[in-house]
Automatic annotation (TrEMBL), chain A:
This is DUF4876 domain-containing protein. InterPro entries: DUF4876 (IPR032627), Ig-like_fold (IPR013783). Residues 1-22 form the signal peptide. SUPFAM superfamilies: Hypothetical protein PA1324. It comes from Marinilabilia rubra. It holds the Pfam family DUF4876. Keywords: Signal.
TrEMBL record, chain B:
This is TonB-dependent receptor. Keywords: Cell outer membrane, Membrane, Receptor, Signal, TonB box, Transmembrane, Transmembrane beta strand, Transport. GO terms for cellular component: cell outer membrane. Residues 121-236 form the TonB-dependent receptor plug domain. The keyword Membrane applies. Residues 313-733 form the TonB-dependent receptor-like beta-barrel domain. GO terms for biological process: siderophore transmembrane transport. It comes from Marinilabilia rubra. It is a multi-pass membrane protein.
């Protein structure tokens, strides 16, 4: 009898604990309607917004739907599932069309985008999107490998990061003096509690780290269809082939970074742990690093945005960055004028974190991401648009969602064939 | 000095004894079946008069001055009895009946009880019934019963310290000043020098999760001014009494989603009347319900032998021997093919204690303990090469090679801290001019030394560059830390019309760090009026000696890379490195000083009980790590000419750069001041339903400042290339914390069941900047490492514009007020078996708020957790 009472208590206790799990009732799903009104930026005149495809991408399942605009630039989406969508449209202009519309005679792609449009069931919504763009550039980022090696020992970590810059034009371009910047802030939505930093990014982008290609002007030519590889450390991390399936040989890169001596000359401390100087590979010039001590020029591994730009006149400004990961030090960013940017790519944490974009539409109308966690050995590479006389012309619509693809292993100076 | 000490000891052991008319009290103690109880402690509260009952239950108290007393009768397993008694003549045949403690009794206290105690001015006593109700695994779980403390699920995977009377910031420093005293013996963590491993416990307070809760009879927390007997503290004391006496076999099993605990204890009565208590306890815990990776294991075992050495002297002696094992580490995941990092701490602890009391020179208490711990900490990490191999233990410049891409670095710490602690104390009662004096005086000695081998670097491994202080360091060369103390206290009581007063006057002398003579007065006054009201006032000073690691932090290594000459061709690959060694000096460290002032009012009438205490607590000279700058010459090396296929021959150039490196050292720089109010309220029990309601709460404000300036290089702030470092004032903060708990206890004596509901109101939690530092530097280091003070008038001059430091004026977001609800159920059977259950945050209530300062959405309250416990009496 006594035992059973004890037992009843135990059962009671378990029921109390279980009783707290709540149940939810499913409601019937009602669908949504969306009107998208396409417009063109003021700097382009005489362009019709009719007969343009408008795309909507569901941020959860990446499902894409499209509709053509009518003569007034209106595209209508009927009976779509409620949810969050990224809305986009683009328009390719020939040299003549571009010249007529903007006075700038160069092939270009105009992009219009509105991210994170919330659609609710049973409600008609409307969004306005504006087509805007920059001429396609001769130097483009061909490949960006920031995600870290899929190395269970983490002994490579992200030390094999690199950026490859490609000459997409038909003429020789000199890399001398070209700047490469990592953009801020590092906050990217990988923590569910992250809130985006609302920086106005129409005129400037904000950099936390800046490097520069050395040379006096004509020392580092890049031939049409060729590229330079800028890596963190010029080391063969494949370690005599043992790691060939997770990383690549970077000992033949064109440039590497080494910040220890530069930081020490500024009275700061570098990281001899992450920074290595290969005597056979020239170093990038160190320009700006907003980490006081123990910093080096790596890229953020979970989401990373970079630009290449020309113009030494950037200013360093304190920006109230509420991301307090590194208190006090992360507040200083170098402000780079958007007009000086040659090319850029916005890599986000995942499909749903476009609110953390660090680049304006005219540089990168979209964004891309590497699915899954960090340290996957995955890289992101620009697609080939066409081949002319054996020279690959890479796709450059200033929209990384279109232009880039995620690949399983980096391919410096190659296209994976 | 020695002579002075000797005289002081003599004086303190033989205070004046003044004779007055004294009476005696004789009686017997029985259980409810009228069977005599043996070895029952009978004493008069506030005096040192005590006796232990004989086999026939009889006791004899003598030397009692006329007056009102509280008679305190206690034995393990029975409900404690407190009885008011007026002694104006000798009393005989005073019979006392004790009830077996169980939930069938009508009076069961399940919250911390405010007590008038000999030990200090504000004390909270937590008795066995209250302890059982919270189903604790370690002592830290018991402390959730203190006013203003949060109810939290047991967490055994991180260090648990007692953070008494602190609203935020510098918890480690506050807890470092709290003494933990088990059976009269102060536990020491001062010899702990393990600075790495799974959990770092060096330089902190006592790790309370190591102390098992299963064999504890009561816990008393002194948060106010402690009696002069307690020293080497700045923030109160926790007194733990373990079980001694007869008990049946007691088998306990406690489990919650992350841990389980199994314990057995038994108190034997031996044929010669001695008692032998044994206990064995095993605890296992994972850090998360979903992951087995991090885990903690603990074994506590003990033997306690209580013997009446002399009936004539009432010489009661306890001898205990304990062994404890603690493991804190990680297990290898079966899916994990390669180890990324391994961390562990392992402690074997053996301690013996002998303590007792006897009637000689009044009453004499003594306690001697020895404590030996074998500590092992281990850290093995997979490192990412290639990096220059640096393992020099001497200063100098040398050529070295590069590590492979993958290598392991292993650091081991072997510590053997030993602590010896001895206290001798005598107590007398006498009366002069209507004032009753209860005096105590004595001395205390504590000794800490570490005989361990220290930090040992594995020979196969490479030291990482740029990481100063990863190399060998001996512990056994570190001198012992000794504290000599003398104390004397006189508790004077006297009566007025409708009032009675207690005036405690104490003085303590500590001799610390072999050079500091420190005097700590402890004064308290309380007056009781109309048997309803009591006014209290107390003031006290205390000192805490620095830990051994703070005094001897070991050498710091600085490695500069003169040449980084890596190549894929092995033969060409080399680095030139210069190692500098700096031995931090510790002579400047002083004991930290704690000051407490408090006052309060109590009201007690018709079952209503209210106690309100206001306090001010100050810590001066708290020790924390401080930024320092050292500069070194870095000679640039080069390889002038390389011959293919041959090893390069590096040579120094005449290019020398002055390179600076920051490092941390210890200083007495922390000052904290806490002001607060503590409230305890008890309402009369609702007799019809057996419901009792208890309210406790606190409001505190802690002001903290760090007087050591912050160091920052000019370069990072503006991108300028001036090579100097600015020193800036630190921000000072005010923390506010207010919480209250309402405990509704529903008791069903006939069912032997107790259900308690705790409503926790988290009212205020905020951190405010009290003083933003100036953006101008107060001093700077130039590149050659020299220190330049900047006169206040010149700080804003353009000359220092590169040193302008932008101050973040963002305000921190306070936590909103929120509730949390907990339920506890305990049920006993007639045989004494019991079952208990608790659910913390049982309403699964996790409100969120937006924290603009950290730019994040934050969740409040921990997730719902529950635990079940069984206790069998065999």
């Amino acid at each position: 009898m006594k035992k059973s009472f004890l037992f009843r208590n135990a059962i009671l206790a378990i029921f109390i604990a279980l009783g707290f799990s709540a149940c939810e009732k499913d409601d019937e799903v009602s669908l949504a309607n969306l009107d998208v009104q396409l417009e063109v930026a003021e700097s382009f005149t005489g362009l019709s917004t009719g007969e343009v495809y408008v795309y909507i991408t569901n941020t959860i399942d990446n499902g894409v739907d499209s509709a053509l605009t009518n003569a007034d630039g209106l595209a209508q989406f009927m009976n779509i599932a409620p949810g969050t969508y990224n809305v986009s449209a683009s328009m390719n202009l020939t040299e003549e069309e571009a010249g007529a519309a903007s006075g700038y005679y160069e092939e270009m792609t105009l992009n219009a985008v509105e991210n994170d449009v919330q659609l609710m069931g049973g409600i008609d919504s409307q969004v306005f999107i504006t087509l805007d763009g920059e001429p396609a550039s001769s130097l483009v980022i061909k490949e960006f490998y920031y995600n870290g090696a899929n190395d269970p020992t983490y002994s490579i970590m992200f030390k094999d990061q690199f950026v490859e810059i490609y000459n997409n034009s038909s003429e020789v371009v000199y890399a001398d003096g070209l700047y490469l910047a990592s953009l801020a802030p590092s906050r990217n939505g990988n923590d569910e509690n992250d809130v985006p930093l609302s920086l106005e990014m129409t005129e400037y982008v904000y950099a936390s780290k800046i490097l520069q290609v050395p040379g006096s002007g004509e020392e580092y030519p890049i031939q049409p269809g060729e590229s330079i590889v800028v890596c963190l450390n010029a080391v063969d991390y494949t370690n005599d082939g043992a790691n060939a399936d997770i990383t690549v040989d970077l000992s033949t890169a064109d440039f590497e970074t080494y910040a220890v001596d530069w930081l020490q000359s500024l009275g700061r401390t570098g990281s001899a742990y992450f920074d290595l100087d290969n005597v056979d590979v020239p170093n990038m010039e160190c320009v700006y690093l907003n980490i006081e001590n123990y910093g080096w020029f790596n890229f953020d591994i979970s989401s990373s945005s970079i630009v290449i730009f020309r113009n030494e006149n950037f200013e360093i400004e304190q920006v109230a960055d509420p991301s307090k990961d590194v208190p006090d030090f992360s507040d200083y960013f170098a402000k780079i004028n958007v007009n000086d940017v040659v090319d850029g790519i916005d890599m986000m944490y995942n499909a749903e974190t476009s609110a953390f974009k660090r680049l304006p539409e005219k540089i990168d109308a979209g964004f891309n991401f590497i699915e899954g966690e960090t340290y996957t050995s995955k890289s992101v590479r620009r697609k080939v648009a066409k081949e002319v006389d054996g020279r690959r012309i890479l796709l450059d619509t200033n929209n990384s969602s279109n232009d880039f693809e995620v690949i399983d292993l980096p391919t410096p100076r190659g296209f994976g064939e | 000095m020695k002579r002075f000490l000797f005289i002081l000891i003599l004086v303190s052991l033989f205070p004046l004894v003044v004779c007055a008319q004294k009476y005696s009290l004789d009686g017997k103690v029985f259980d409810s079946e009228k069977k005599p109880l043996y070895y029952v402690a009978v004493n008069l509260v506030g005096t040192h008069i005590y006796d232990l009952t004989n086999e026939d239950g009889s006791f004899h108290l003598e030397g009692i001055l006329p007056g009102q007393y509280t008679l305190h009768v206690q034995i393990l397993g029975y409900q404690k009895l407190e009885k008011e008694i007026d002694i104006q003549e000798s009393i005989q045949d005073f019979n006392i009946y004790l009830k077996k403690s169980s939930l069938a009794l009508s009076e069961v206290q399940i919250t911390a009880k405010v007590s008038q105690s000999q030990e200090g001015s504000t004390t909270y006593k937590i008795d066995e019934e209250a302890i059982k109700q919270v189903q604790p695994i370690s002592v830290s779980d018991i402390l959730q019963l203190l006013p203003g403390n949060q109810v939290e699920a047991p967490d055994l995977n991180s260090m648990a310290q007692a953070d008494l009377r602190n609203a935020g910031d510098y918890s480690d420093i506050n807890a470092f000043g709290t003494a933990v005293i088990i059976d009269g013996n102060q536990i020491s963590n001062d010899g702990n020098m393990q600075t790495e491993g799974q959990t770092v416990t060096a330089n902190k307070g006592i790790d309370l999760r190591q102390i098992s809760a299963s064999n504890i009879e009561s816990v008393e927390v002194v948060s106010g001014v402690p009696s002069a007997k307690y020293g080497n503290i700045t923030s109160g004391a926790i007194l733990i009494n373990k079980k001694a006496g007869y008990t049946p076999y007691n088998l306990s099993v406690n489990t919650n989603p992350t841990s389980y605990q199994l314990g057995i204890n038994k108190g034997y009565k031996l044929k010669n009347g001695d008692f032998l208590n044994i206990n064995l306890d095993y605890t296992y815990s994972n850090s998360k319900p979903t992951s087995r990776k991090k885990y903690y294991q603990r074994i506590n075992s003990g033997l306690r032998w209580s013997k009446l050495l002399s009936k004539k002297l009432d010489w009661n002696n306890h001898f205990s021997l304990n062994y404890a094992y603690g493991f804190d580490g990680q297990r290898k995941d079966p899916d994990e093919t390669v180890v990324i990092g391994e961390f562990e701490n392992k402690n074997h602890n053996i301690s013996f204690t002998t303590n007792g009391n006897l009637k000689i020179l009044g009453t004499t208490n003594y306690s001697i303990s020895g404590n030996y711990t074998k500590q092992y900490s281990y850290k093995k990490t997979s490192e990412a090469g290639p990096i220059p191999i640096i393992e020099s233990l001497e200063e100098g410049t040398y050529v070295t090679s590069f590590s492979p891409i993958t290598f392991y670095q292993k650091t081991e710490f072997y510590g053997k801290p030993v602590n010896i602690n001895a206290t001798l104390e005598t107590n007398q009662n006498f009366s002069t001019f209507g004032i009753t004096h209860n005096t105590s005086s004595g001395f205390n000695f504590s000794f800490d030394k570490n005989y361990g081998e220290g930090r040992v670097m594995d020979e196969e491994n490479n030291a990482a560059t740029g990481m100063s202080g990863a190399r060998d360091m001996n512990f056994y060369n570190v001198p012992a830390s000794e504290v000599y103390s003398l104390f004397a206290q006189d508790n004077m009581s006297f009566k007025g019309e409708n009032s009675s007063y207690l005036f405690k006057l104490g003085m303590r002398y500590d001799y610390m760090l072999k050079k500091y003579n420190l005097w700590s007065p402890r004064i308290s006054l309380s007056g009781k009026y109309f048997k309803k009201y009591r006014l209290r006032l107390a003031y006290g000073i205390s000192y805490r000696t620095p830990s051994m690691l703070q005094l001897y932090p070991g050498p710091k290594y600085f490695d500069l890379i003169n040449l980084n000459h890596y190549s894929e061709e092995d033969i060409r690959s080399l680095a030139v490195v210069t190692t500098y060694i700096y031995q931090p000096r510790h002579e400047h460290l002083e004991p930290s000083k704690g000051t407490t002032l408090e006052g309060g009012i109590d009201f007690e009438h018709n079952g209503y009980f209210l106690r309100l205490t206001g306090f001010y607590k100050k810590l001066k000279g708290g020790i924390s790590s401080v930024d320092k700058l050292l500069t070194f010459d870095k000679v640039k090396w080069e390889v002038p000419e390389e011959i293919p296929g041959e090893k390069p021959n590096p040579v120094p150039t005449d290019q020398v750069e002055r390179v600076s490196s920051g490092f941390l050292t210890y200083q007495n720089t922390i000052e904290t001041q806490t002001q607060g109010i503590e409230l305890s309220m008890q309402f009369p029990k609702i007799k019809a339903t057996n419901t009792s309601i208890n309210l406790s709460g606190s409001y505190m404000k802690t002001h903290s400042e760090n007087e050591s300036p912050t160091l920052r290089s000019a370069a990072s702030l503006t991108g300028a290339s001036k090579n100097r470092y600015g020193l800036y004032e630190q921000t000072s903060y005010n923390n506010y914390l207010s919480r209250s708990n309402v405990t509704i206890a529903q008791h069903f004596p006939e069912l032997r069941m107790m259900i308690s509901l705790v409503t926790e109101a988290n009212l205020i939690k905020k951190r405010e900047v009290e003083h933003f530092p100036s953006e101008y530097p107060i001093a700077y280091y130039s590149i050659d490492g020299t220190y330049h003070e900047i006169p206040e008038a010149e700080r804003s001059s353009p000359e220092y514009s590169d040193l302008l430091y932008s101050i973040d004026h963002t305000k921190q977001v306070p936590e909103p007020s929120y509730f949390n609800f907990h339920i506890r159920i305990r049920k006993e059977t007639k045989q004494g078996h019991s079952f208990s259950f608790y659910a913390n945050n049982f309403l699964w209530y996790n409100p969120t708020y937006r924290d603009d300062f950290n730019n994040a959405i934050k969740e409040l309250n921990s997730r719902v957790t529950f635990g079940i416990g069984f206790n069998f009496k065999l």
